Amino acid sequence: MNSLFNAQNITKQYRGIKILDNVSFPIDHNQIIAIVGKNGSGKSTLLKMIAGLITPDHGSIIPSKQNLKIGYVPEVSPSHILFTPQEYLYQMGRIRGMAKQELLPRINYLLELFSLVDVQNTRIINFSKGMKQKIMIMQAMLDETDLLILDEPLSGLDLTTQNELEQTLHSLKQQGMTIILSCHETKLLDHVVDTILMIHNKKVMRTDLPLKDVTYNQLIFDISNPTYLEDLSHLIEINHQTQLATGFYEVNIRYQAQHTDDLLQQLLLKKASIKQLMPINDKEIFIAND
Ligand SMILES: Nc1ncnc2c1ncn2[C@@H]1O[C@H](COP(=O)(O)OP(=O)(O)OP(=O)(O)O)[C@@H](O)[C@H]1O
Questions:
Q1: What are the residue boundaries of the ABC transporter domain, all occurrences included (predicted)?
Q2: What is the Cα–Cα distance from 261 to 114, expressed in whole angstroms?
Q3: Quick one: 174 and 151 in the same domain?
Q4: Binding site membership of 153 for ligand 1 (Cβ less than 6 Å)
Q5: Phi, psi dihedrals of residue 112, rounded to the nearest 5°
Q6: Same domain membership, residue 204 and residue 235
Q7: pLDDT tens digits for range 141-150
Q8: Where does the chain show beta strands of DSSP type E?
Q9: Same domain, residue pair 67 and 198
Q10: How many domains, in total, are found in the chain?
Q11: Same domain? 51 vs 12
């Protein structure tokens, strides 16, 4: 599959506290990708880095083509907007330097796409939360967008509105868009998301859906130096590691079972001594939130 961009060896810290530690992952073209993780795990931080709003301390996010157009919708959006959708989107487009003749057809296209034609002359302040969310997404899409980034788009929406927004995201994908969103609403994962990036212990683990087909293994092994595992960080999640009296380290990892052959081969090349391999079933880790 084509990558839209690759995140390579990203590390980010705030005030000396690491949020993300040497994470690498690709973002595939024309996919819906969900970033999940506990509160404070770094979802918004990662989204902002992908959007180019903040920079990693180390590593880089490398786009597959120049001038990738990115639309970003933050978690908290202004809601007391006295303009109508037409007026608001027009002003936003003009601020971005768009010409009137390209802006007006684009606004009409977006109003159709988001089923807001009937309310195009109603003031946004009178809209429901879901309709306001749509306006924020439309604003991010005023330019032709390759990648849409949505921070918690379903937060605070009722079930019906969530379903509606889900359908909208699905139709955006059908039109060739790549979408990355952070979410707590696990229901969404089943319906529209192709890939999950889970932030856990400062690392990012990638899982392609359907989730029900993913199984995990736990592996315990000894290795002389845990830094040998750095190039496997995209495959494994370290549960814990302990230094033994021998000076070796006992490491306990979790990984997707489909990678077993590859992983064992790589560990043996690193002269690891395998102690225990067992299947685990902890799908719920992907829906673990407060
Ligand atoms: N500008 C900043 N300065 C200092 N610390 C920050 C800054 N931005 C985020 N943090 C801290 O970094 C950590 C990750 O924050 P982030 O907002 O990325 O997490 P999150 O997973 O999106 O959380 P939530 O699910 O609660 O929205 C948190 O501990 C947060 O307090």
A1: 5-226
A2: 46
A3: yes
A4: no
A5: -65, -50
A6: no
A7: 898 889 999 9
A8: 3-14, 17-28, 32-36, 58-63, 70-73, 147-151, 178-182, 195-200, 203-208, 216-223, 236-243, 249-256, 273-280
A9: yes
A10: 2
A11: yes
- Which three-class secondary structure state does DSSP give residue 146? coil
* Coil, strand or helix at 192: coil
- Region of residue 15 (phi > 0: left; psi between -120 and 50: alpha; otherwise: beta): left
Neighbours of 88 (CB within 10 A): 19
Task: Give the length of the chain.
Answer: 290
Q: Is the pLDDT of residue 287 over 80?
A: no
Per-residue pLDDT reduced to its tens digit, 103-113: 999 999 999 98
- In tens, the pLDDT along 45-79 reads 999 999 999 999 999 999 888 888 898 988 877 77
Q: Which tokens is 211 given?
A: 């989730």
> From ligand 1's centre to the CA of 229, what distance in Å?
27
State residue 281's pLDDT score. Answer: 59
Ligand 1 centre distance from Cα of residue 253 (Å): 26
Hey, whose CA ends up nearest to atom 17 of ligand 1? 44
Could you tell me if 52 and 141 lie in one domain? yes
- Kindly state whether residues 160 and 19 are assigned to the same domain: yes
Query: How distant, in Å, are the alpha carbons of 2, 173, 193, 205, 283 from that of 210?
Result: 20, 17, 9, 15, 11
Closest among 180, 240, 230 to 21, alpha carbons compared = 230
User: Which of residues 156, 190, 208 is at a domain's end?
Assistant: 208
CB contact at 8 A, 155 and 110: no
51 and 186, same domain (yes or no):
yes
Distance CA 275, CA 49 (A): 39
The letter for the amino acid at 52 is G
Going from the Cα of 46 to the center of ligand 1, the distance in angstroms, rounded, reads: 10
- Tell me whether 0.95 is exceeded by the ipTM: yes
Q: Which two tokens stand for residue 233?
A: 């960080």
